Amino acid sequence: MTTHPPLPEPAELLADAHVVALPMRVRFRGVDVRETVVLRGPAGWGEFGPFPEYGDAEAVAWLRSAVDAAWHGFPAPVRTRVPVNATVPAVPAAQVPAVLARFEGRTVAVKIKVAERGQDLDDDAARVAAVRALLPDAELRVDANGGWDVAQALVALERLGEHGLAYAEQPAPTIEGLAAVREGLADRGIPVLVAADESVRKETDPLAVARAGAADLLVVKAAPLGGVRRALEIVAQAGLPAVVSSALDSSVGIRAGLALAAALPELPWACGLGTVSLMREDVLREPLRPVDGELELRDAVPDPALLARLAVPAERRQWWLDRIRRVHALAGAAA
Ligand SMILES: O=C(O)CCC(=O)c1ccccc1C(=O)O
Ligand SMILES: [Mg+2]
C-alpha cells in the first residue's frame, strides 16, 4: 500500500494553526456548532476536523489529509466546475423548504438524511415527499448512515423509492449487509442503487466493499481517506463510480473535496460538497457555497479577521492542540 511522506514536526505543524467554532444554521448529526482546525503550510491551507468522538487512531488519516493539502498542495484538475447536491439533515418535513432555501439558485440533486435515531419511516417518507414536492426533476438520494438492518432497508427503500431515488448511501452497517440490500433490491425490482460510505472510510481496508461487489458506487471523502491523492488511488483501484462528499467542513476542507472531485477521471454524480450552505459562519470572506448546483474550483484562503472572531476559547484550543500532538505521535509510530 501507500507509504506516507513524513509529517512536519508539531511545532511546524502548529505554527499557523487556528481552532475555530462555526455555528450551524441547521443542526446536522447532532452538531449545532462545528469545531475544526485550519492550518497553513508552504503549499496552502489544510483542515483537521475529525468529530470530537472519533478516537486518535481514526484521526491519523485526517491529519495526513490536512498536511497533504497544506504542505504538498493538490493534484492537477481535469475540470473547473463540480456538480453539487443540496444536503437535507433529518429535519421535520415542515422544515424542508427552509433548508432547501439555503442553497442558492437551481438545485439539481439532493441528499436526504434518513434512519435517524428517535425517528421512524413515516418521518423519512414525509421528508423525502417534501423534497420531491419542491423539486419534481431533481435527482434524489438518501443517506441512512447504516441505521437500518437489511430487512428494514428493503421495506424503507421500497417505500421511499416511490418518490424516485437514484441511490441509498450506507443503507446497512456492514459490507455483508450492503451486499444483501443490493441483492434484495434487485430481486424485488426496486430501481435504487447502493452506495458505500462508512464501509469505505471506516474499514481498515477501503477496497473491501468493492472487492465484495457489495455496492454500485463509492462515497469518498478526502479527510478520512488520508488526503486527495490517497482517495484518488482508492477510487482507481476500486473500479467503481465515485461521489465525493465532505465532513461538515469549513471552506478549507471543502476545497480538498473540490480538488478530489476536480481530479477524478470520471464524475458521474453530483457531490456532497454543499454543506457550507448549512453553516452560519465560515473562515472565508467568500465561502465555497454552491450556486445553481455547482461549485467553481478556486482556492480557499481564510480571512484573518474571521479566524480571530471565530476562535474558540483557550481550553478548547488546548484540547485540539493536545489532540493533534497525540495523533501526530501515533502517525509517526505507524509510518
Ligand atoms: O454528502 C453530503 O451531502 C454532506 C456530507 C454528509 O452527509 C456527512 C457529513 C458529515 C459526516 C458524515 C456525512 C455522511 O455522508 O454520512
Ligand atoms: Mg454518508
UniProtKB/TrEMBL annotation:
InterPro entries in alphabetical order: Enolase-like_C_sf (IPR036849), Enolase_C-like (IPR029065), Mandelate_racemase_C (IPR013342), OSB_synthase_MenC1 (IPR010196)
Entry annotated with the keyword Lipoprotein: no
Top-level taxon: Bacteria
Start and end residues of each Mandelate racemase/muconate lactonizing enzyme C-terminal domain: 92-188
Catalyses which reaction(s): (1R,6R)-6-hydroxy-2-succinyl-cyclohexa-2,4-diene-1-carboxylate = 2-succinylbenzoate + H2O
Keyword Manganese: no
Single GO MF annotation: magnesium ion binding
Gene Ontology annotations of biological process type: menaquinone biosynthetic process
Pathway it works in: Quinol/quinone metabolism; 1,4-dihydroxy-2-naphthoate biosynthesis; 1,4-dihydroxy-2-naphthoate from chorismate: step 4/7; Quinol/quinone metabolism; menaquinone biosynthesis
EC number: 4.2.1.113
Binding site for Mg(2+): 143, 169, 197
Pfam families: Enolase_like_N (PF18374), MR_MLE_C (PF13378)
Annotated keywords: Lyase, Magnesium, Menaquinone biosynthesis, Metal-binding
Family to which the UniProt record says this protein belongs: Belongs to the mandelate racemase/muconate lactonizing enzyme family. MenC type 1 subfamily.
Protein name: o-succinylbenzoate synthase
Protein encoded by which gene: menC
